[in-house]
């Protein structure tokens, strides 16, 4: 598909797209005899088109998960390259900021280290160190928020092409995802503010329960049991709306990228699509996060264990007072493998859940708005404009 796709086949009812509002009536495939997924003249239903990573019909859990994995496999360059480049650049930026901050407060650090025993430092002595740490922390926060939004937008952009079997190179994905970063950040902030009220109440409830447990453990007063009961009940009551709101607005980032919606309209759009399908969206989203965490954990633990064997063998050969360079040399393989494992795990955890979310969005559009014929037409157009393969020898 071309780089400049506009709203494409995903234009929603608020995005000005030609397919807004689900013009196909009751059935997702138009209902004509012989149409994909509907019985033909003889009662036989032809299979739905499958131009990309999913069949163009209402999706099952297996379709969504396999579609996400297939996207990661077929579009390795943008799926792996984009988060690796973005988070790598962000990490280098934070490291440079930390090095600059260290040299800026180096004298202060030495003064604090050389303080006589038992003497507390004055605020004037620790103020430069605190300022440096806050500055580095803010740079890291802003950098990683921007990086996460860019990666999320990139995954939705890749998926837009993967569903219809189109190409998705690193450059086009970058150029299409970058303009959506401000709207993605705005959507995340709005969602956070909406969910914050029950979330804060949830934290207060947990704090009450912890205080009650502490009072019961110390044997001070009989109010501890009441605090525990109130805290646990409050946690249960506030956790439900927090999770409900999170799922209700979970498809908003996909609407931001695929329909080019603003934050407010994206939240409304997500609410419309999730309505009546809350439990499937919740269950599949939760499964995606759990799978990503498990796969990342297995890879990280496996590579770390592999790196420990040469480290343990080398440590046995060290003298009683080894030089720092010797220690670094012995543990270099372990450090490299641990960093690689961390990067792989981070890529999985930042790419797989957004891909699943994007497929959930597509599934809701297919079910509720009859998007399948539109996607099939887009796939046919992409196939017609794709360069012909060179003849085989």
UniProtKB/TrEMBL annotation:
Q: Which domain of life is it from?
A: Bacteria
Q: Which Pfam families match?
A: DUF7847
Membrane-spanning regions, if any? Answer: 79-105, 129-151, 184-213, 225-247, 278-299, 327-349, 370-389
Which UniProt keywords are given for this protein, alphabetically ordered? Answer: Membrane, Transmembrane, Transmembrane helix
Q: Does the keyword Transferase apply?
A: no
Q: Which InterPro entries match?
A: DUF7847
Ranges for domain DUF7847 come to 61-351
The name under which this protein is listed is DUF7847 domain-containing protein
What are the leading ranks of the lineage?
Bacteria, Bacillati, Actinomycetota, Actinomycetes, Kitasatosporales
